[in-house]
Amino acid sequence: MSIVLDIIASSGLWAAVLRIATPLIFGTLGALLCERAGVLNLGIEGIMTFGAMVGWLAVYHGADLWTGLLVAALAGAVFGLLHASLTVTLGLSQHVSGLGVTLFASSLSYYLFRLIVPLSGSPPTIEPFAPVNVPLLADLPFIGAVLSAQTPPTYLALLLALLLAYVVFRTPLGLAIRMTGENPHAAEAQGVNPMAVRYGAVIVGSALMAVGGGFLTLSAFNSFFPTMIQGRGWICIALVVFASWRPGRALFGALLFAFFDAFQLRLQTAVDGVPYQVFLMTPYILSIVALCVMARRARVPQALMQPYRRGER
Known about the structure:
There is one protein chain. The protein has 313 residues and is an all-alpha fold. It is built from 13 helices and no strands. The longest helix is centred in the middle third of the chain and has 27 residues, at 194-220. It is globular, with a radius of gyration of 20 Å. The model has no long low-confidence stretch (mean pLDDT 88).
């Protein structure tokens, strides 16, 4: 018990929680925005992979780190446009289109990486984002040690969660997004263009997903390898349901999963005689339990995965 309390009381654990949660926050906010408008985007895993690759590649070829994140966002927006064209304009299955985007983006990432980067014994590296000290906050006991270990994209992710919560629930744009996800015909009757709203939500949401991938290569690590996303995209999809499609709860869900993950990593080194696979599966088991509990009370947007046709009901 004392081992558990020592781990929980360490600033290193909570610094790791914020770092692990950052790509999940970007990805979950992106998926939430898409689904609030009525479009399921299962392309998230591939979009995060492609964002990680092109962001890193841009910096590797001389761009600065913020430009690398911007390149990742633009690449994600392009895949969002592709997904929106297939699902919003053509009305194709959102499941099939999303899985197709994931397979296409993941395969294209690996192909371009091997085409552009020469083969070597170890992958080439870049200089990633460095942690920043925020004035006043860095001087606070415990909290200062946690925050001073974070890089700028982590602060950006936290601010975006607050911004998206404000936009979705406190602005006319957010009302239009929510109306489109609940009843696009009613939204159209109020002068809203549901197709334009869905296009915008999917494009912006996909850009956020790609930034989450870009964080991994430009901040958490300093190189790219094709399997680095490791299912984070699917975790983000589950976190949206856990959050009941609310940005504030999405932030909490991402931090909760990150806590489970960071905790099991430290528990592995503190406990002997237990196979490490037990620790690895712990955050996923706990997340499934939390998802089952929260999903019973979740209210799904009524028009989610329903294609919209003007004049049809």
